[in-house]
Amino acid sequence: MSEQLQPVGVIGVGWVGLVTAACFAELGHQVVARDILPEKVEALSRGEVAIHEPGLEELLRRNAERINFTTDMDELLEGARLLFVCVDTPPTYSGDADLSRVRSVVQELPEGSDHVLVMKSTVPAGTGESIRRDKPDLAYVSCPEFLKEGTAVEDFMHPDRVVIGSDSGDEAAADAVAELYRPLGGEILRSDVASAEMIKLASNAFLATKISFINEIANVCEEVGADVGEVAKGMGLDERIGTAFLRAGIGYGGSCFPKDVSALKMLAGNTGYHFQLLTAVIEVNELQKRRVVGKLEKHLGSLIGKRIALLGLAFKPDTDDMREASSLVLSARLQGEGAEVVAYDPVAAERASGLLSSVEMASSAMEALEGADAAVLVTEWREFAELDWAAAAERMARPLLVDGRNFLEPQPLVDAGFEYEGIGRTVSSPRPAPAP
Ligand code: UDX
Predict the structure, then answer these.
(1) What are 355-399's pLDDT values in tens digits?
(2) At a CB cut-off of 8 Å and minimum separation 6, what does 146 contact?
(3) What stretch(es) of the chain map to CATH 3.40.50.720?
(4) How far is the CA of 68 from the centre of ligand 1 (A)?
(5) 256 is known as an active-site residue
(6) Does 246 sit in the ligand 1 pocket, CB within 6 Å?
(7) Of 125, 272, 311, 391, which has the fewest beta carbons less than 10 angstroms from its beta carbon?
(8) Model confidence, pTM
């Protein structure tokens, strides 16, 4: 079956589509990758990759001969029967997933098409069923992506699990998809389509819940003098809990968690079920980004005219993705309080500057810290661990650091003269100076 269905087709060469195309090519398949944007297709055909994703550019270069980028749907349909749909499903104003791009892909498929639509885009449960109703000749397989930005190539090549959902009549198509993933060695879970769709949404919502939970624990730790790192470690040693995703910080961001949590909440709401827990998960995450302002005010008093340096802007390290980054809310809040904001990010600065027009962009961490009244570590880029913090203390107007990711060892910073604030961490900082 898999022989018959080759080569692999990819629809939408954003981040997911590009990683999917590059990795299938690396596994030896011919790939036809189609996008509606001619400039994107032309750039990729020239070998130019606009996305920062470790290992991706090299993989594309190495497999350039196996991947054909095109804007032409007919070329895709002639070249491939197995079509991996990797288009965006961004949130609408209501928080529902916007399925317009998925719908236009489906509409482009001719009547009687015997292609296999493999849905990688995150869609609400029930989407597969409605597509099958619209296009009864089409085989439909749900194969949600679980890639993490920054380690997407690695995640693709070494998956924890591959979820493949199909309904009656489409088992052969699902077998073909399973064959493609078999060489990767992860557990392949077969289910019905609606369950596969729910697995994706429920997984991301659960991970987001873990983060909001540990963030609330961190906030309580601050009140009772406990250390959230120790608490998370102690909790995580219980096998039923596990240590992963218990890092307290200034909230989750990115293209998936905020969108998927709200999509699941709305999906439930549309059926008449109020998913109370997710309402709280979202609210805790929003408040967590804002708590930094209070921490700064505790030391500085009013922030009017204070120069605050943001270290890191991307929603997490090893990516230039600014979608739902905590830095966006934080910088706006700081400016709202009258602060002057300067920022540095080793990779996301260019992407961020369009979004943060009134934020001054520095070309190094040290430059951002020069003359600053405080610094906030927003993204845990490795280079911040290697910074000469003693020299930074000399160059700042006031060596005050809010470590929004609990990334740095507090004691050496305190020894270098810093007032240090983490998230749910107990640190014996010098007493804050009285607010002016
Ligand atoms: C996530 C899912 O992990 C992935 O399976 C899915 O396919 C897409 O969404 P990604 O958005 O790349 O991946 O980021 P991830 O590494 O999961 O981190 C998401 C956010 O949570 C980041 O802002 C990160 O800083 C934050 N986070 C993560 C925490 O605040 N604490 C943690 O313990 C872990």
Answers:
(1) 998 999 999 999 999 999 999 999 999 999 999 999 999 999 999
(2) 155, 159, 160, 161, 163, 200, 203
(3) 8-193, 225-421
(4) 31
(5) yes
(6) yes
(7) 272
(8) 0.92
